[in-house]
Design brief:
Layout (H helix, E strand, L loop, with lengths): L12 E4 L7 H9 L1 H4 L2 E4 L16 E5 L6 H6 L3 E3 L7 H7 L6 E6 L17 H7 L2 E7 L18 E5 L13 H11 L7 E3 L4 H8 L8 E4 L5 H7 L15 E3 L6 H7 L5 E3 L2 H4 L2 H4 L5 E6 L2 E3 L4 E2 L2 E2 L2 E2 L6 H10 L4 E5 L3 E2 L4 E2 L1 E2 L14 E4 L2 E4 L5 H10 L3 H17 L2
Parallel strand pairs: 1-2, 1-5, 2-3, 3-4, 5-6, 6-7, 8-9, 8-12, 9-10, 10-11, 12-17, 13-20, 17-21
Antiparallel strand pairs: 13-14, 15-16, 18-19, 21-22
Helix pairs in contact: 4-5, 6-7, 7-8, 13-14
Length: about 425
């Protein structure tokens, strides 16, 4: 096991590559050596391994921009500090010093066609962490793809480099449930030929892409994509032909999938893994007139306010990048912003369409459509009274009467 003690000091803040970009061997060494290295702070994003567990908080204080994957268990145990920040602003916060970064542990691809390494499947804030950190330690993993867009300049300041051939952390797709399929079919009814999609990951998105096989010339410009995008690329549905920028290229900030997706993107100029400062940038997104931003939520109130972060006092989501994409889709000439979610939670015992939400992630004015398994609420150009009627119409039938009563009380108070 690599010895990290010459490089890491007690009290340091250590940034780790996230998701499929996680440097697993270095992370394992950090956790194993925490008694001699610590106490330390760790900044991590999405995590698909269980290397860091709640019991490790004895000397490792973990922080993240949200919960995705195994970080949700850390948050539930009170072992994760949450930074409510737009994901595309993290790099700026690192460079300004607002978020400390002393050490960067990063996974790199082998050198590619240009003779330089790349960040491979994810091009997030680790570029800024590499630039800012006192110490940068890299594991060069032959198993991850060299990707266009994620190329790095010459790395002359690496304190330590280790080489390996280890399967990266993966996020495999699973079969969509009937509920997810029903929601997906309703989303698909909104998406036209030629749309440029911002999508995330998960069963509903997988099901949605499966519903779009009869469309033509779809494009992708997204913060994250998974394996299911490949089905539409291989079927000739995703061509990116109608995008005014990056024509013919699938653009994303991260590949959250399996070896199938990694192999497709390896040294492939038809894929670009761009920095979040590009994928989420207002000036870039403004050049896409047919942008359809499709995002999820924990709950939505009867006027369209969106909570994508917390439920029952527990943080289970993130601010992420959806607000950047929603604003751009609102402004797009032929675009729209879509929030999709099941109508209920807790096995049907609680409604996700509520009179009011506990936390507002996205304002009601930024939402064009809300979609559940019961239908589509088109909120564009609607007054509050009409929004409430349409939102109740896509709620679960068992909760509609109670929502009607609450809506009457709210309208009576004039909001």
């Amino acid at each position: 096991m690599v010895d990290l003690s010459p490089f890491i000091r007690p009290g340091d803040t250590v940034f780790l590559g996230q998701g499929t970009g996680e440097p697993q061997t270095l992370f394992e060494a950090l956790v194993a050596q925490r008694q001699t290295l610590g106490p330390l702070s760790i900044f991590m994003g999405a995590c698909f391994t269980d290397i860091l567990r709640p019991e490790h908080r004895d000397l490792l204080r973990a922080g993240s921009y949200g919960t995705l994957g195994t970080t949700r268990a850390l948050a539930a145990a009170g072992a994760l500090d949450i930074y409510p920040i737009h994901i595309a602003r993290i790099a700026q916060s690192i460079m300004s010093g607002a978020i400390a970064c002393d050490v960067a542990l990063v996974q790199l691809s082998p050198k590619g066609p240009n003779g330089k390494h790349s960040l491979g499947p994810i091009n997030d804030y680790m570029r800024a962490a590499i630039a800012k950190a006192r110490v940068v330690i890299a594991e060069v993993n032959a198993a991850i793809p060299w990707t266009y867009g994620a190329e790095l300049p010459a790395l002359d300041t690496l304190a330590l480099t280790i080489e390996m051939d280890r399967a990266p952390a993966e996020l495999a797709s699973r079969p969509a449930t009937p509920l997810e399929t029903a929601i997906a079919a309703n989303i698909a009814s909104i998406v036209p030929d030629g749309a440029t999609l911002q999508v995330g990951i998960g069963g509903t998105i997988d099901a949605l892409l499966g519903c779009l096989k009869d469309r033509r010339d779809l494009g992708i410009h997204s913060g994250t994509i998974g394996d299911s995008v490949l089905d539409l690329i291989e079927a000739g549905v995703i061509t990116n032909a109608q995008k005014p920028i990056d024509a013919g290229v699938t653009v994303t900030g991260s590949l959250f999938g399996t070896s199938r997706l990694m192999d497709a993107a390896r040294e492939n100029p038809a894929f670009r893994v761009e920095p979040f400062e590009y994928t989420h940038a207002a000036g870039i997104l403004a050049q896409i007139p047919n942008l359809f931003a499709i995002n999820s939520a924990v709950e939505v109130d009867i006027t369209g306010q969106v909570n994508a972060e917390a439920a029952n006092g527990r943080y289970i989501g993130a601010v992420g990048g959806q607000i950047d994409f929603m604003h751009a889709a609102n402004a797009a000439e032929r675009g729209c912003s879509i929030i999709a979610l099941p109508s209920t939670a807790a096995g049907g015992a609680a409604s996700r369409i509520r009179g009011g939400v506990d936390m507002v992630t996205c304002a009601r004015a930024d939402v064009d459509f809300v979609v559940t398994e019961y239908g589509v609420a088109d909120l564009r150009g609607r007054c509050l009274r009409d929004r409430i009627r349409d939102m109740i119409g896509i709620s679960a039938p068992a909760f509609r009467e109670a929502l009607e009563r609450e809506s009457h009380a709210r309208i009576g108070r004039g909001f």
